[in-house]
């Protein structure tokens, strides 16, 4: 008897973790008729725990430094480069971009910083959780960014040739987080269950 083929689990990346969190949020907003989502919620929670644990272990084991080994030798003096990526809040007003960029307990941003060697900060209107404090700080020295539209500020310090590579990588990764996404697996699940949900809903 041939061995059963096992599908490799997705890699524990910040974007995958955020997709799982979005899936859980979307599932919680759907009517859970007859407890049809109970097992799915448990599986989602288990997968979220696995990814968080693996990401934490990867950081401790130094696997996030792999890209640093690919950088060329430094040439010239240390410079500081930065780039602003504006968040498409007008196009997607209901999407929680700040939560997706920062991640649970700031894990996504920290992981990206470790992987790219760049500092990643959310700035501008709506960047602070405490909206009252944000209004109080608006217009004060060192808080000028609150007058700008919501954006991600990416900064890096290194030799010019290395800094440009790091900044480019960080921009590519952050741009991925600025596109609302739900995992393909969850979309297939909803497509499969939707007739059942509609049937149960009409029976009420």
From TrEMBL:
It is found in: Cytoplasm; Nucleus. Residues 79-173 form the K Homology domain. One of its GO terms (molecular function) is mRNA 3'-UTR binding. The keyword Disulfide bond does not apply. Its main location: cytoplasm. The keyword Ligase does not apply. It comes from the Eukaryota. GO terms for biological process: mRNA processing; mRNA transport; regulation of mRNA splicing, via spliceosome; regulation of translation; RNA splicing; skeletal myofibril assembly. SUPFAM superfamilies: Eukaryotic type KH-domain (KH-domain type I). Keywords: Cytoplasm, Developmental protein, Differentiation, mRNA processing, mRNA splicing, mRNA transport, Nucleus, RNA-binding, Translation regulation, Transport. GO terms for cellular component: cytoplasm; nucleus. InterPro entries: BBP-like (IPR045071), KH_1_KHDC4/BBP-like (IPR055256), KH_dom (IPR004087), KH_dom_type_1_sf (IPR036612), STAR_dimer (IPR032377). Homodimer; does not require RNA to homodimerize. Belongs to the quaking family. This is K Homology domain-containing protein. The lineage of its organism: Eukaryota, Metazoa, Chordata, Craniata, Vertebrata.
């Amino acid at each position: 008897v041939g061995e059963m083929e096992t599908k490799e689990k997705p890699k524990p990346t910040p974007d995958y973790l955020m997709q799982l969190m979005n899936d859980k949020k979307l599932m919680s907003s759907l009517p859970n008729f007859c407890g049809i989502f109970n097992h799915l919620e448990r599986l989602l929670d288990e997968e979220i725990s696995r990814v968080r644990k693996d990401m934490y272990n990867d950081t401790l084991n130094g696997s996030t430094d792999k890209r640093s080994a690919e950088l060329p030798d430094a040439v010239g003096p240390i410079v500081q480069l930065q780039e602003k990526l504006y968040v498409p809040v007008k196009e997607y007003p209901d999407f929680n971009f700040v939560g997706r960029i920062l991640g649970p307990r700031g894990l996504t941003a920290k992981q990206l910083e470790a992987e790219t060697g760049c500092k990643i900060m959310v700035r501008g209107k709506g960047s602070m959780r405490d909206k009252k404090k944000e209004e109080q700080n608006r217009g004060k020295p060192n808080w000028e960014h609150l007058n700008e539209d919501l954006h991600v500020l990416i900064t890096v310090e290194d030799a010019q040739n290395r800094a440009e590579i790091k900044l480019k990588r960080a921009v590519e990764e952050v741009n991925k987080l600025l596109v609302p996404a739900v995992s393909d697996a969850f979309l297939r699940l909803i497509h499969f269950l939707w007739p059942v949900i509609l049937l149960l809903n009409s029976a009420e």
